[in-house]
């Protein structure tokens, strides 16, 4: 794709090659025959294709490729303007594939009220059954697609690259992301932002009071496969690391004693627990704020001012509370009050071997099947060592992971990677030993038989 974009940029014309007139968006007729006087120089081979094929070229690009082509060629820009709606819709679906429903849900949830969450959830489930075809849903307007494309280009795509760079910082092998790896990271980014949207400060307070945190875990997260939940938590680990680094860099200039910030609620960042709470709270501001800070990180004064004004304490329901607080207590309570078919699959130890990494990463990644020894597990968060998330363990495809493990496909080899990378916030994950005694699923087998989930620690 990079080589294609480079060639397309070479097509960018001088002012003398600009069209004499441009058709209005979505109103121009299909330019079957270009006027001979439109261009003063010969067209390139790509521009000389029949109009129908040129449209097919547009529809087979991803979002970044489309942007490069319409900026490089006035002829393709004219065609894009004439068929903007269908082109954007097709290109967006091709870029995100099965993540399209998550993108639609994220966009629709930004101003959602607590009383609307039930209907929203039902519609989200319906869209997920459609996959990439959800882009043709009647509720997805042209304005919505334009906004989703902008959000992908400005927020999601830069964070995909930032995540990949962070996760590979201390790995021996640094290679471009495969399509399956891109799918996992993209999915994790959209879904964590979706959670931030639906569990806003106002909504989370209402849901927490009336339903409890275990219901939120069931209602929102149990719609996903357990390894897909870990994708979300891998993105969470990335955000924790980024804010931890930033706060270390600007520590001296965001102290409560600094005259610019006189908020009486502001606590000292020197206090480890207060500092961790600020990190957790700032993460809840969402991905747009994270991307804004990362994109301006070289502007020290801007970062100091923006972080100083916006960083905040955690609010009610955050991911730490749901997945780690109390040694996985919320997960345990969810299993009692809201059991799922995945819990039963875990109890039976249904086989779950690694198959392959398809384009949409529909199956479990190799790291997941290695960690749970090829059988089903519905445990995540507290029950997964934090250090596995610090190098994107559950994002990588089989090829990359096998090269990292150097032929040793077992849990011990998996756990030995990245032992020295520090954790920005201590999550008190379960410790694992070799053998069956290191498998937390056995304790749930006992509890299921006894019907007693008390004193699980």
UniProtKB/TrEMBL annotation:
It comes from the Eukaryota. Residues 447-457 have a biased composition (Acidic residues). Residues 11-36, 337-356, 431-457 are annotated as: Disordered. Residues 337-351 have a biased composition (Basic and acidic residues). Residues 19-31 have a biased composition (Low complexity). This is F-box domain-containing protein. It comes from Westerdykella ornata. The lineage of its organism: Eukaryota, Fungi, Dikarya, Ascomycota, Pezizomycotina.
